[in-house]
Amino acid sequence: MQNKYKDLTATWMFSFLALGISLPFTATYAEDGVTDNEIMIGGVMDLEGRSSGLGLGMKAGIEAALEGQTVAGRKVRFLAANDSYTPE
């Protein structure tokens, strides 16, 4: 009978240890670009130079697809950075 309780105690101790180790990793924290109202995503594309047509078209398409969209109640905003593609 005493051995049964010994195993049960070991199981509970292991469970509490596992819970104590995992709790800090379950906390929710803000990532860069995520606020209570907005999620910002971005991309680097050719907005100037010889390939600007591709970059500007991609930017317009992404913005059109995201317009009015929300994720978990947060507005999604797209930011584009220009890499001024010049192959020379």
Automatic annotation (TrEMBL):
<feature type="signal peptide">
    <location>
        <begin position="1"/>
        <end position="29"/>
    </location>
</feature>
<dbReference type="InterPro" id="IPR028082">
    <property type="entry name" value="Peripla_BP_I"/>
</dbReference>
<keyword id="KW-0732">Signal</keyword>
<protein>
    <recommendedName>
        <fullName>Leucine-binding protein domain-containing protein</fullName>
    </recommendedName>
</protein>
